[in-house]
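Summarise this fold before class:
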Amino acid sequence: MTSLEEAETEETVTCLHLTFYHPCQHEKMMFRCLNFCKREQVRADETAKFGRDSNVCRYSLVDTRVSRVQFSLQFYRKLHTSEHCFEIKNLSKKTKLTVNQTELGYLNKTDLPWKCIICFGDYQILAEIQEGESMDYFETHLHLSEAPILQERCLPCLPSLQPIPENGISPSSLLSQGKSPTEIDENEL
């Protein structure tokens, strides 16, 4: 028998890719404590906490407007399946957390969709789950975005962020008045 035949079967690892953006990241350097260089292993029974307190939070944000513990992510396996998921819980008493268009108040929690945008204050975090098989741990891979994620990915956190036509009239306002949009020749304006 060769060593390849005797080797244990490798299992894939669930990886949570998190892309961070803040409009003042270059001036305030609030992401300086995050490791953007490599994947990081997190034990499955640990809760990954994000916030200002580096003694409590695994992922520390250097910003006085961020709560001591802003939110947490818990890795779990769905009942009667082999599917792995993440649960996100808002741990800030002062700041609401938005996951796509779902607003979470203090201690509210929800399952993290496989691709979503997490927002609080001016922070935007694109979360993407890469599925794996391992039940012992998962990995996080942090990225930094130079451009706003909401514009870049077209996944609005707020339902009110819609493009407004050059004439300033929103198609939704026409529909709410019972009128349907009509095409107008630019020479008629």
Notes: The radius of gyration is 21 Å. Residues 153-164, 170-176 have pLDDT under 50 and may be disordered. DSSP finds four helices and twelve strands in the chain. The longest strand covers residues 123-130.
